[in-house]
Amino acid sequence: MASSLELGKLVTASFLHRYWHTLSTWIKVYLVTGCVTLVFITSIGIFGYLSKAYQGSTLELNQINLELNIYEEELDRLKENKTYLMEEMDIQISSLPDNYITAKKNLRNEYYAQISEVTTQIGEVNSKVSDLKLSMLQTGADVGPILYVADAFNTDVDTVVKWLIFILILVFDPLAVALVLATNIALSRLKDSKKKDSGVARTIIKVPVNQIEPEPEQKPEISNTEPSEQNTPPAKTYVGGSDVNG
C-alpha cells in the first residue's frame, strides 16, 4: 500500500506538470490537494517506520541499562553491608576485655564468615555488571552516533531522534516530487532538441531582378526530310484508252 501511495503521488505530480495549461480548474484543485495529502500520509508513514526502527534498536539497550542500574544498586548495598560488618566487628571486639582472647577470636571468625559471604556476592555482582557493560557496548554500536550527538548537544536521545526524523521527512518527500518534475523538464527539452536536429534547414537566397539573365529564344527547327513515297498517289497507265489498273 505504501508503494502504491508513493507511486500515485509521483504520477500525479508528473501529470500536473505536463498538462497544467490544458486541465480545468477543478481538476487542478483536486489533483493538487490529493498530491499534498499523499505527501502528508507518506510523511507519517516514514515517521512511524523510523520510530519503530529506533525503538527496535534501543529496546535491548534499554533493557541492559535497566539491569545494569539494578545490579549497581545491589553492588552499592553489598559494599555498605560489608563496611557495616567490619565496623561492627571492630566495635564488638574492642568492647570485650583484653583477657577474653578466645571470645574475641570466636567473634572475629563469626564476622569474617559474614564478611566473606558478602565479598563473594560482591564479586558475583561485579562480574554481572562487567558482562552487561560489554553487552551495552556491542548493542550500542547501532545507536552510537545518536548517543554522541545527544551528548554533544547536552540533550536526551529521544529528542535527537525526533528532530532527525523530522529533517528526513522534510527532505525526502519534497525531493522525490522535485526529482520527478526535473525528469519531466529534462525529457521535454531533450525531445525539443531532437526535433530541431531532425528538421531540414532551408535557406532563401534573394537575387535582384536585373541580375537574372533571360533565357535564349528557341527557333523552330526546319525539317529537311522529303515527303515519303507512301503519300504519293500511284501512277495510272492507259492502254488503248482503257485503264490497265482498273
What does the model show?
The chain has 246 residues and is mainly α. It has one domain (2-194). It is 72% helix and 2% strand. It has helices at residues 2-18, 25-95, 101-139, 144-152, 157-198; strands at residues 238-239, 242-243. Strands 1-2 form a two-stranded antiparallel sheet. The radius of gyration is 54 Å and the shape is rod-shaped. It starts with a helix and ends with a strand. Mean pLDDT is 75; it is low at 225-230 and 235-246.
Radius of gyration: 54 Å
Strand arrangement in the largest pleated sheet: 1-2
Number of helices: 5
**What's the average pLDDT?**
75
Percent in helix: over 70%
Overall structural domain count: 1
Largest sheet: 2 strands, antiparallel
Tell me the fraction of residues in β-strands, as a range. under 5%
Shape verdict? rod-shaped
SS content category: mainly alpha
How many distinct beta strands? Answer: 2
SSE series = HHHHHEE
The oligomeric status of these chains comes to single chain
Q: Tell me the span between the first and last alpha carbons.
A: 114 Å
Q: Pick out the low-confidence regions.
A: 225-230, 235-246
Structure summarized in a few sentences:
The chain is an all-alpha fold and 246 residues long. It has 5 helices and 2 strands, in the order αααααββ.
Please name the defining characteristics of this protein.
246 residues, mainly alpha, two-stranded antiparallel ribbon, rod-shaped
Provide the fold topology.
Elements: H1 2-18, H2 25-95, H3 101-139, H4 144-152, H5 157-198, E1 238-239, E2 242-243
Antiparallel strand pairs: 1-2
